[in-house]
Fold these 3 entries.
Entry 1:
Amino acid sequence: MNERPNILFINTDQHSWDAISAYGNPYLHTPNIDTLHRNGTSFRQSYCTDPVCAAARSSWATGLYTSETGVPFNGGHLHPETPDLGQVLSDGGYQAFHCGKWHVPGRDVRESFQTLYYGQRNIGAGGAAYYDSASTHAVADFLTNYDSDKPFYLQIGYVDPHDVCEYLHNHEEKRIPNPVEQGIVSEDALPPLPENFDYDARETVLHRVCRRVDDALIHAAILKGVRDWDELHWRYLRWNYYRFIEKVDAEIGRVLALLRETSLHHKTLIIFSADHGEACGSHQMFQKFTLYEESIRVPFIVACLGDGVLIEKDRFDETHFVSGVDLFPTVCDYASIDVPEGLQGSSLRPLAEGKDVPGRDYAYIESNYWGRSIVTGQYKYVTEYKPKATEDFLPPGPDATQFGLAQLFDRHDDPGETKNLAEDTAYNEVAKMCQDKLLRQEAKLHRQQIVHPSPKRIISNWGDRLRSYWQHDK
Amino acid sequence: MNDNSGHHWSFDYNYGAQNPQFAQELIGTLREYYAETTACDTRIGQTFTHVYNILPNYWRGYGGGANEELSIGTAIIERNKDNGFWNYSVHYENTTSGENLRMQFRCSAKHYRSLTDSWRIDARNSGDDKYAELRCEGYLVEDSEVRLRINGNEILAGTVDASAKLTCNWALFDVIPALAQTIRESDDGVDLVLLEDLEQLRPKSRLGFLESIQTPFPLDGYYLYGAGLLPSYWWLDTHGDIVIASTFFETLVLKEKIGENA
């Protein structure tokens, strides 16, 4: 008799923590993710390790932060000696399967997992319209035919709502009438602008150079396009984003229905999360790549549709901080498999079972190689490392003398992060407390030098731009 | 109009250096289609077929490399009228996803092409993975429950009001021409329930009139919009054929018609 549960990790892409109807969002309808919430524990203080696909996914795959994995941005390359979850689970007696988006450059998913479906042209960053339905078909085929005595681990990487990126690319070079002009919807059918549409321009240099200046390092063409947007265009972006989520919710619904129908649901643990979020107009920003909440905070649900896995159900955990590095040890805990040495995360199993155990009291997030953030119960601190005079390709930290500018937000009084308190002397002690926490966390990291030529080129190019900005524009 | 290629924004995906051949491919396909349809008698028996070229709206790896064709597949919609019903057979082949779908369904002969009792989907994956094929059979139970049976396992896809007009997105190639006048005359468009690819129920869908254009050809534009759907745009020519159907991610361009719509 096999006592170890099957484990199903369903992940969506670019899905902000609050874009779920069970969490009170009135602008979309996600009945199937809602079902997961009702059958599990939703961790509300859940953060990705790095707000971009490849980086965040490298943490899922390894249980490490992105300055440790070799993938600190989309063009990274996973360090070859780092073990991944598929390898560890297979060695531990699980059948480890993958379906859909992987996006961990430097590691061939087919070498670490048995792949149910990975596209004829391997799935890259986007393309939900081509891949998600096929992924569901592959999972349907798998669930209705699974007859092994071994427990399985299956990770399903849905691409949506990442296709909102293509929606944005579509606005790079052409003007698309807003839907009210098109006559498709009335204005009152669109979600309102986010309350934090306006923002405090005192942002880090890294943020400005990557996302705000005319020749921004990341998606300058989209930035140019959205500068011509009126309010309705921003609201239409939000409307579209929610439709992408409804599409992927429907895919998840078919998987859950088949899981029930095949009776596998009793002994299957389900984890649901997303690699990162979507700004969707907050701070007049789009996509991810920033350290604002909409970009870094993601859903994380641990659930079971049956009674075979002990889970506290229909519950919000509002206090414990969860990180993308926790996926690996959580899966291994449920699978009764030892984790490799050096992992940064912790198992969420005791918390999901409702046990009163101490958890992490902060989340640590990296971004664009030099960006750093610490989120605590009341405060959020964002800072950056200045680029080194001579780049050695060792991800920076911990070194307070090399910090650049900072942003500090009071999460209680200003949840939308619209007022930067970092320069307010009344908050000096808070800023120092956050810095100390950040430095202590960074001291625990096993940072490795980037050796692959492709990410080295990116670091060199971006570093040059940042140095130039510090010298001439700051 | 778009400053980029001069074509309507709903099917203009030239998209800088990423997708430079899009407009050329789209217009080239249509020019060839019109040249050939007027040149020969295409009527063959009772079967009426549309063949569409599938173009990716975004190049970024969804199509082939720089030296490959832009087209990523073909959609063939074949139907014949039998005993007061239309029998559809749709073959959708996508070389990016690697999934080939064959969808068979029967509709009433009324304008809305309402789905009748059962349908079938055969999916095949040509990629190098464990998933090779899947058969899914669908049923309409008591005109309200949409059920799917996959490898002997039956799930509820959703319920619809018995009076709702339930149809499939692939039947819209006939529904829109049939309802064109009605849609144009309606301020709010016409409501229908869509079973997308015969699997996903979209209960609150609506067809509406967008606008008419003269370039590159005289075309009337319609939109499809609804819960769980990204808007798609359908362009009807003066012969009553949908020649461009642009969904969020791909654009179908008519390249061949065999037979005439009875």
Note: Residues 39-45 of chain B have pLDDT under 50 and may be disordered.
Entry 2:
Amino acid sequence: MDIKDIIKPENLVYQKTPLMTDKPLSYCPGCGHGTAHRIVMEVIEEMGIQSETIGVAPVGCSVLAYDFMNVDMVGASHGRAPAVATGIKRCWPEKFVYTYQGDGDLAAIGTAETIHAANRGENITIIFINNGIYGMTGGQMAPTTLEGMKTSTSPYGRELKSMGNPLKMTELLAQLPGTCYVTRQSVHSPRNVRRAKKAVRAAFESQKENKGLSLVEIVSNCNSGWKMEPVASNEWMVEHMFPFYPLGDIKVDGKLVNNQ
Amino acid sequence: MKELRLMKGNEAVAEGAIRAGADGYFGYPITPQSEVMEYLMAQQPEKRTGMVVLQAESEVAAINMVYGGASTGKKVMTSSSSPGMSLMQEGVSYLAGAELPCLLLNVARGGPGLGTIQPAQADYFQSVKGGGHGDYNLIVLAPSSVQEMFDFAFLGFELAFKYRNPVLILSDGLIGQMMEKVELCEQMPRTTYFDRSWTLTGKPDGQERNIVTSLDLDASRQEIHNQHLQEKYRKCKETEVRYELIDTDDAEYLFVAYGSSARICQKAIQLGRGEGIKIGLLRPITLWPFPAKPLVELAPKMKGILSVEQSAGQMVEDVRLSVGCGVHIEHYGRMGGMIPTPEQVLENLKKLLITK
């Protein structure tokens, strides 16, 4: 049998979504960003809302997200994506608006914009990638860096007394009445990718129903910043990140789950 | 029939924005411009025209909401006063870099720092020389009456969309707070046309997506973008200079003053002419582009030029750059929220240009 006999529509089990452009991803091999991009775009494709969606790219590793995501997009300044998304959504309430932000962007410089967009119940979706580090600028300490974790600006490990505590922004946002759906996921295994994609779908469906702000945190690895092999970084993430940032739904349909 | 109303400057610009068909206002309270948002909230423009008004959590958020709204091709605006404008400067640079049209209003107060809440014109450099980072210019309009606060909402949006550039109305606490008669014009409809060559409306099937950004990591492409911006600014300089000449035909001395200072100078001209001193006024209406050409034409006819500003002397630099050497140019101003009287202005013209 020739390979041409195999490449037939009926044998197709998986296809790259046309909502991802053909541009090679700028992310380090092994990084979770690419998978996170893909599931967001697959959800938009499956919901058939490409022509009604406007995305907001942040500053950080995913500053060029608009090169890879085939929807109308705007690049925000550092931390301001929820404010930019607010401006878009208020002008076009009938469109789907999402932001894609890292931990430095969302939980440090953009804390005010994030909390107030959530508190107003802006009907937008936030995809929040938490890898505990500033990847693009070369691995500095992030608001979500774990205690003892070594980064280029905490070379002896994060020391809580002088450097502050890792910030659980997602739990904090879940407390606000303006948020509808808040969940924490990961994309390090096929099972988790499927769960994360379901969560992204639920977040966009919640936006469709005008329920308020929906947020999907994706705990991810940064093998380059953590100075590990990709597989080792995922194992480290499971061992160290997940106990502090446990996966699962935190708020569903406006109600906190598991007495959080 | 004419629709006349007695209004504050801050109210007039807000009413102007509604009637100019604005789609959105995003702002944060600060004295002496808070009446802009107060008026808008009281008017409920969402019911009148569908215009959205939102109180943001900070000036930083407000300018970024403007950035988001502007990227969709809608007519959006914000307003603030000096310290708040400083906070917005990063966003203003992004708006200029991404070529987004929007209307900004600075009802300026005394600085530096938290300064005072009284009128000042010390934000001239920030307004016309950049303010934020990078090579960019705003189109800067300087109203000197409550009527112009109303009118410039229309002109501001018109120029913003003509050049795809932010337009700044540089007012001050005096123009913002004082009440005058305003002639209102009719309501313009909000736009329903969005130019798909750049606006974000959602990628239509079979068409390319649009990307709004001020980022290009390729320096050679960024330079080409900057050259394009400079070409746009050059065209704007050629066509958009606006100014007013008062009593310049027989004048031997010239005031150059904008905004509230221009009003004070008009009274000083009357006082001076009463004493036989022939004074005229060049009032820049656009601070950028600066009316250099009419100033150059007038200058040789003058025994002296006095730049009157409520600052330590900022616009006077542009007066000197335009005119060059050969004409006696001085600056007179008060600072920190103090307003010069017409008598003080005239006295200083005599002191600096005549008896000196």
Note: Chain A has a mean pLDDT of 96.
Entry 3:
Amino acid sequence: MDCKEVSETLFLFFDNEMEEELLAPFRDHVGTCGDCARKVDYTRKLLWIVRERTYRCSAPDRLRHRILISFEHRRFAGPH
Amino acid sequence: MPKGVSMPKESVDHQKGWNFEAAAMPFVDALYNTAYRMTRNAEDAEDLVQETYLKAYRYYDKFEEGTNFKAWLFKIMKNTFINNYRKKQQAPTLSDFAEIEESFENQVSEDAAKPTKNPEEELLENVLDEDVQRALDKLPPDYRMVVLLADLEGFSYKEIAEILDVPVGTVMSRLYRGRRLLEAAMLEFARDHGYLREGDEPAKMRSRSAK
């Protein structure tokens, strides 16, 4: 694998979507190429920020109530 | 239950209701978070999630056992979102997208021309939590949706393709562009903090020497 191929498959690698047989060549190249090792490190940080530092909103209680009440209603009234 | 013996309809509905509730309620936070980020409005997000649950309940018989239930719920929400969104005519026009694509292409070719030493690594350290939110909000809806499904909900490319009714290749290219746009926006915000920090320097030095 060369630098260009590493660039193209970086996200596949971090998304666990890389084909099995490409994993070893990917790791081999990154292990011997400083530029690519930096790119891998940078991408890991970037994805960590997006995945772990994005605030996740919880559903408000009133929404849970609304949904549960609609189920109750359907259970007792039957389908419409 | 033996074949040919049917439960009274009322109790079938009753059982269906309980099964559905137990299976579906654990995903209410995930659905709401995605709904909120797509509609950017709490009231619309609540309506969208409620409608999703009502539709999912109605079509629960059509859900194939053994397939991904969470992905099935997200698919219903995506369809509902698109219908409501189109109705409200808030969707960006195709030309808006073309413009974004074009500016993105320019950005990519500029990036390729840059020397290898990159200040991005340092800038990434300056990204604040609120920058991540703002950058995500700024993403065009198609890209935002793919990033939310992949990075916040952890769906596979194949699952995202099924939720969005697009080929896996489209998921990959939207995810690539979406993340790069997100990165560019976050770095831009971080750069702004950098300038602010430089401007603050004399004040900081004063307070330090006053101690």
Note: Residues 3-77 of chain A form one domain.
